């Protein structure tokens, strides 16, 4: 139903912001984004020349008074904010025939890995604390020994993504002009499967050059 509104009755953004509903929005979101949402709601109404197009609601008069208009604008601003800050990653069904599909988040994490992430991410952990020594430790200690054993590498380093791993390998190359094809450098790059939410990427690299390790700090 069309609700007729007098353009002169449209409240100023500051009035909406200082109202109880506006302050509740500020408490949930940042001040600036609430102001922008209120402006957008007001601009939409003005662009429609004061005419609200809404579903008919029982008991609501056709002509809105100032209090009802303020309520409608606050509701619209809240809707704008909810849409703006809603998570964009959604569950999908992979019907492409490609099991490890990059566009769909590649491989899913196993339930065991999911539980391990929950245990570590939703509580304090010994990320950089050595429980046996009772002092500060290294975050690499949790994976380095396992990765070396699995791959045969002499050292391992966990980085954020595969691009960082490749950059480290290239940076490890000495300035003598030698290259990977010479056979003197052994490089290893492994990338674990990523989850659908891209929350777990564990590439690592290790390089060896004539008995010496070259790591970029």
Could you characterize the architecture of this molecule?
Helix content is 38%, strand content 10%. With 217 residues, the chain is α+β, with helices and mostly antiparallel strands. A two-stranded antiparallel ribbon has the order 1-2. A hairpin with a 4-residue loop joins strand 3 (129-130) and strand 4 (135-136). Helix 3 crosses helix 4. Mean pLDDT is 76; it is low at 181-217.
Protein structure class: alpha+beta
Distance between the termini: 65 Å
How is the largest sheet built, in terms of strand order?
1-2
CATH homologous superfamily title of the largest domain:
Type I PLP-dependent aspartate aminotransferase-like (Major domain)
Question: How would you summarize this macromolecular structure in one to three sentences?
Answer:
By secondary structure, the chain is α+β, with helices and mostly antiparallel strands. 38% of the residues lie in helices and 10% in strands.
Name the descriptors.
2 domains; 6 strands; 217 residues; disordered C terminus; alpha+beta; Aspartate Aminotransferase, domain 2; two-stranded antiparallel ribbon
List the helices and strands and how they pair.
Layout lengths: L1 E3 L8 H6 L1 H9 L2 H17 L3 E3 L12 H20 L25 H11 L7 E2 L4 E2 L7 H8 L10 H11 L12 E6 L13 E6 L8
Antiparallel strand pairs: 1-2, 3-4, 5-6
Helix pairs in contact: 3-4
